[in-house]
């Protein structure tokens, strides 16, 4: 197994060069994208009374982990192309091949480094990115104001009651103590058109249904609006189990937390294909870093003096970016039920692994 790698000195040299370029590219991408993102969001952040420079730095601290997680595979791809193209330009690849190393042996230190990066990326996503995502989404939902201390608070929720719809600006509490605020209940007729609208500042669980406090009704056909003196019970089909399933955000949950949410939804008969695909993608996503040295390897071989080095680098970039396009498309198809969740998460990885191997073997081995 160890014979597959070059000498110890060469392995350390290649790994050190590769990891340095990964960090440099990642830093460059994150800084540029963070500045652009902050320019677009700073107006909304500062629009909330009392927000200032401290809140801008808070936003940056929450956004940077997301950018790092999203663009780390891109950084590995670009670092692969830069590293191998530089080695090729300096005739180092020629020297290594003259010493008897195959293309796979030259790539072995890069693949090992990428595997370590993938492991760190997975742990970083689980421990840091999920928490920063949950906090940032809660802060955004509060219009960059104070974040509710109750972790059960959800914003902009809606529930179906047969053909009718119950919406609320926020949901807090759990079980029978669940409270909805900023409630609107839409009643539909047989043609599916909204026939009545009921608004209420607050709703509590009525077992079954929900009591709307100080409701105001609006009849669409007569355009008549009335304020009722007594609480109105609506949405008898909206249960507490349905409430508990609201706000399952796979990006804000760790692998085990998402698995528990999927099991709960399955027991309640809910559709879970999209969440299952996201669960598998939490594993396959970080592992995509291992593919990048293979897909970008075409940039490191061939004669540098042939004038095709730039074209080879373009081909490597095209292969890498094609993977991300196919990966996102497959994940979307899996969410719609077009693919099984496992296939949606892993098919692009396996497809481009064999594609990269084929290109490398056909051109270099």
UniProtKB/TrEMBL annotation:
Any single biological process term in GO: transmembrane transport
Superkingdom of the organism of origin: Bacteria
Entry keywords, A to Z: Cell membrane, Membrane, Transmembrane, Transmembrane helix
Principal subcellular localisation of the protein: membrane
UniProt membrane topology term: Multi-pass membrane protein
GO cellular component, one term: ATP-binding cassette (ABC) transporter complex
Transmembrane segments: 12-36, 67-85, 106-124, 309-326, 338-361
Cell location: Cell membrane
Name used for this protein in its record: LPS export ABC transporter permease LptG
Source organism (scientific name): Altericroceibacterium endophyticum
Gene: lptG
